[in-house]
From TrEMBL:
Family in the record: Belongs to the Gfa family.
Domain (CENP-V/GFA): residue spans on this chain: 2-121
Protein keywords: Lyase, Metal-binding, Zinc
InterPro entries: CENP-V/GFA, Mss4-like_sf
Species of provenance: Pseudoalteromonas neustonica
PANTHER family named in the record: CENP-V_GFA DOMAIN-CONTAINING PROTEIN-RELATED, GFA DOMAIN-CONTAINING PROTEIN
A UniProt-annotated Pfam family: GFA
Name of the protein in question: GFA family protein
């Protein structure tokens, strides 16, 4: 089980299952929404994900039709996102987790979109788009 919270601690989550397909995404959208050089994302089963505190502090932004991003309305921390074309899983920005995770990133993605000041510091495969298994 994993636990997490937003920056201001208004929202708390728990995950009762594994985190899969963890990647470092360098696309401009992930950079903008995270405010960093890249976002580390992973998928969890929707059935394993619970908001344990602060549901009323959760706000939603529909980025594209059927693609919703949920964040804390007080501190702005991303909590999760969903793609209604695949309702079985949610995508997390792993920075929300307070627990150590056992799974590890499998790749850097959208490397051709990386920030011009970013230097790669991990010995992972690098792809110009999604990892081949997705």
């Amino acid at each position: 089980m994993y636990q997490g919270s937003c920056l201001c601690k208004k929202i708390a989550i728990k995950i009762d299952g594994p985190i899969s397909s963890i990647i470092h995404c360098h696309c401009s959208l992930c950079r903008k929404s995270s405010g960093t050089a890249y976002a580390t994302n992973g998928f969890v089963a929707r059935s394993d994900f619970t908001i344990t505190k602060g549901q009323d502090s959760l706000s939603m932004f529909e980025f594209k039709p059927g693609r919703n991003r949920y964040f804390c309305s007080k501190c702005g921390s991303p909590v999760y996102s969903e793609n209604l074309a695949d309702i079985t899983r949610l995508r997390l920005r792993l920075g929300i987790l307070d627990s150590d995770i056992t799974q590890r990133p499998i790749s850097h993605n959208f490397c051709s979109s990386k920030a011009n000041w970013e230097e790669f510091d991990a010995q992972l495969p690098h792809y110009d788009g999604f990892e081949p298994s997705r």
